[in-house]
């Protein structure tokens, strides 16, 4: 039997990264998992050369917690440059990186930073496969947290085809094993089984938990990406892979009060 590849996971402790590590281990890969908790900083490059020693493929699931466009752009462009440079030195074959569906026209905030991320990645020396994902089921809780003021949570109007981080992890590992040629599909996509709105998902989540929080959907005219969020630009393309569980199934399986 051919020897399994050695695969490094950057951002291995995150919402997505922990599932990527689990899927790789389940499939028998030799895994190097790291984040700053292990002394490896993908933004400064500290510890990256050591972490990538002997690695064949890097899956990058790292992120900054900041939604500020400048902070996030600095993080993602520096990480892209560092991964290419350290990856080349280590003899890495290619990078597999996750991005977001529908961000081509993004003008602001985190999504614009992810667009800059993609562009920087594609300038580098190593082959790169970028998987664009829909918003994760796990993001709904984060958005409720950001928007909560007392007993009300303000949630940005957004049409999205929410997907489980575990399903994105499986798709990333599939791509690591079997890359899709860019001339066939430049940006493969992974999304959940059906369109939803972020506000309806948020309401379903707080109801399942029994939280006394009222969800109010907002439409922020100061946000240059508002129209894209609201008009379905973030929904998957026809070529997307759609994978369950649905948000409702995921809530039923993961929220104790909903079981
Ligand atoms: N969340 C979504 O709905 C969604 C949707 C589509 C695509 N994506 C993409 O999926 C990726 C992962 O997102 P996520 O929500 O899973 O992120 P997350 O939960 O915030 O996890 C981020 C990970 O990156 C690590 N990290 C942060 N700064 C680092 C640094 N300087 N050096 C090394 N590691 C660092 C964190 O660990 P430490 O703090 O220990 O370093 C953590 O392991 C991102 O590229 C994001 O754009 C997310």
From TrEMBL:
<dbReference type="Pfam" id="PF13460">
    <property type="entry name" value="NAD_binding_10"/>
</dbReference>
<dbReference type="InterPro" id="IPR016040">
    <property type="entry name" value="NAD(P)-bd_dom"/>
</dbReference>
<dbReference type="InterPro" id="IPR036291">
    <property type="entry name" value="NAD(P)-bd_dom_sf"/>
</dbReference>
<feature type="domain" description="NAD(P)-binding">
    <location>
        <begin position="11"/>
        <end position="179"/>
    </location>
</feature>
<protein>
    <submittedName>
        <fullName>Uncharacterized protein YbjT (DUF2867 family)</fullName>
    </submittedName>
</protein>
């Amino acid at each position: 039997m051919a020897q399994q590849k050695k695969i490094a996971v950057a951002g291995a402790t995150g919402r997505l990264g922990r599932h990527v590590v689990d899927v790789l281990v389940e499939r028998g890969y030799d895994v190097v998992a790291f984040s700053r908790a292990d002394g490896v900083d993908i933004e400064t490059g500290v510890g990256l050369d050591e972490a990538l020693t002997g690695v064949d493929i890097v899956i990058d699931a790292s992120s900054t917690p900041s939604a500020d466009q400048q902070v996030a752009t600095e993080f993602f462009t520096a990480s892209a440059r560092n991964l290419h440079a350290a990856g080349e030195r280590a003899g890495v074959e290619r990078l597999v990186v996750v991005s977001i569906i529908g961000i081509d026209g993004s003008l602001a905030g985190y999504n614009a930073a992810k667009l800059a991320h993609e562009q920087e990645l594609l300038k580098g020396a190593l082959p790169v496969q970028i998987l664009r994902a829909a918003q994760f089921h796990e993001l709904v809780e984060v958005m409720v947290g950001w928007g909560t003021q007392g007993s009300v949570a303000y949630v940005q109007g957004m049409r999205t085809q929410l997907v489980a981080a575990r399903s994105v992890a499986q798709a990333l590992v599939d791509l690591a094993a079997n890359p899709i040629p860019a001339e066939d599909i430049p940006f493969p996509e992974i999304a959940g089984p059906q369109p939803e709105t972020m506000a309806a998902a948020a309401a379903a989540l707080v109801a399942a938990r029994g939280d006394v929080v009222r969800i109010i959907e907002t439409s922020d005219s100061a946000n240059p990406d508002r129209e894209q969020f609201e008009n379905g630009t973030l929904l998957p393309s026809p070529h997307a892979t759609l994978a369950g569980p649905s948000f409702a199934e995921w809530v039923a399986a993961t929220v104790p009060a909903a079981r």
